[in-house]
Write a structure and sequence with these properties.
By secondary structure, the chain is mainly alpha-helical. The protein has 14 helices and four strands. The chain has helices at residues 2-13, 16-40, 55-66, 77-85, 99-104, 120-139, 164-195, 198-203, 208-236, 245-273, 276-293, 305-311, 315-329, 335-362; strands spanning 43-49, 70-74, 91-95, 112-115. 40% of the residues are buried.
Length: 363
């Protein structure tokens, strides 16, 4: 078994294509997520202050510029209208002339909120943003006594609030583990047919079970190497939180179990297809299907109802939840149950790979 592991890992190191097909799809997905986070994390907004000498107007403009849902900057009315027409800003907030004096006189001046409704999701984000700015303005006292008199008390489930990039990076890590396990174990297994070395294996006194176990173990080690590098990069970039010892152990266990499931699946695919040009695309596509059916980059609760049952049957659903709990929040109350489910998936993956490869070697 150890000889098979060393041989497969040595072959993988001499084949850069294996590393490329393992990492590049995940890197492309990370790039897409970074672009998405930059697009939806905050919106470009023009702020026009037609009451520059008013204290209340200055406070409102400051609240708008400081709101973390906007990338706001002050403009003249003409510049804001031009930027809005050229799609350079998503909205224009205009504070009218005499705004501060009207508030002091007990009147109700109106601000103008011009929103470009690109799509319903972004439009609703912008619609929700203005009340937040106005609430901060009213709480400041610049408009006099707060007429709304609503006090907000927030109770957070987690002590740490990860960024959108960090939140979406964790399932990509799970995808990377799955893809690395499936592809590398599959390539290691299919190489026996591609090179004809399966004949030597048949003539040797080595039990078929040891050969299969070596193939799976090599796939697990390759996936873990890629996964640990990705976790290290996330920690170094400050996107992930260094987990406490117990959560670090859970992280490692979740990664190993997911990689074991993936390696068993890769071996089964290779035994069935026996041609490298088929194994690689099938493995990559299958990994992405499992990724998106398991929730992908969003939470299970946000998926359509019909997809909930499907996601609960996907190993990435449990691996992603475990890794998010450990690497983003520092705890996961359901970690024990999720580890158990992942262990069952790992056993199932190996149980699928071993018989398939044994039959392939025998025939």
């Amino acid at each position: 078994m150890w000889a098979i592991v060393k041989k497969d890992l040595a072959v993988l190191l001499r084949r850069p294509v294996a590393l490329i097909v393992t990492i590049v799809p995940a890197l492309v997905l990370v790039l897409v997520l970074l672009l998405e986070a930059g697009a939806v994390g905050s919106y470009p907004v023009a702020v026009v202050n037609l009451d520059p000498g008013g204290a209340a107007a200055s406070t409102l403009v400051g609240d708008a510029l400081g709101y973390n849902g906007f990338r706001a900057r002050t403009m003249t009315a003409a510049a804001a209208e031009a930027a809005f027409g050229r799609l350079q800003v998503a909205a224009v907030l205009t504070v009218p002339a005499g705004f501060s004096a009207a508030l002091a006189a007990g009147l109700h001046p109106a601000v103008t909120w011009q929103v470009r409704n690109f799509n319903l999701d972004s439009t609703n984000d912008l619609r929700r943003g203005l009340p937040d700015v106005l609430s901060a303005f009213l709480r400041s006292g610049a408009a006099g006594p707060d007429p709304v008199r609503v006090a907000l008390r927030e109770t957070d489930l987690h002590a740490h609030e990860p960024s959108l990039v960090a939140y979406q990076l964790v399932p990509v890590l799970a995808l990377l583990l799955l893809q690395a396990g499936v592809v590398n174990a599959g390539l290691g297994a299919v190489a026996e047919w591609q090179t004809g070395s399966v004949k030597e294996l048949l003539l040797s006194p080595v039990p078929a079970g040891a050969v299969v176990a070596g193939k799976v173990a090599a796939g697990v080690l390759a996936a873990m190497a890629v996964g640990l590098v990705a976790v290290g990069a996330g920690l170094a970039a400050g996107l992930l939180v260094p987990p406490p010892p117990a959560q670090a152990a859970l992280t490692l266990a979740a990664m190993i179990l997911l990689a074991t499931f993936a390696a068993g699946l890769g071996v089964a695919i290779a035994a069935g297809l026996r041609i490298q040009d088929r194994v690689v695309p099938v493995s990559i596509n299958l990994a992405f299907y499992l990724f998106f059916l398991g929730g992908g980059i969003t939470a299970l609760a946000y998926l359509p109802e019909w997809l909930h049952g499907v996601a609960r049957a996907m190993p990435l659903t449990y691996a992603t939840a475990l890794l998010r709990g450990a690497l983003l929040y520092g705890s996961d109350p359901a970690a024990g149950r999720r580890i158990l489910v992942l262990a069952l998936f790992a056993v199932g993956g190996v149980a699928a790979g071993i018989p398939a490869l044994r039959r392939g070697i025998a025939h």
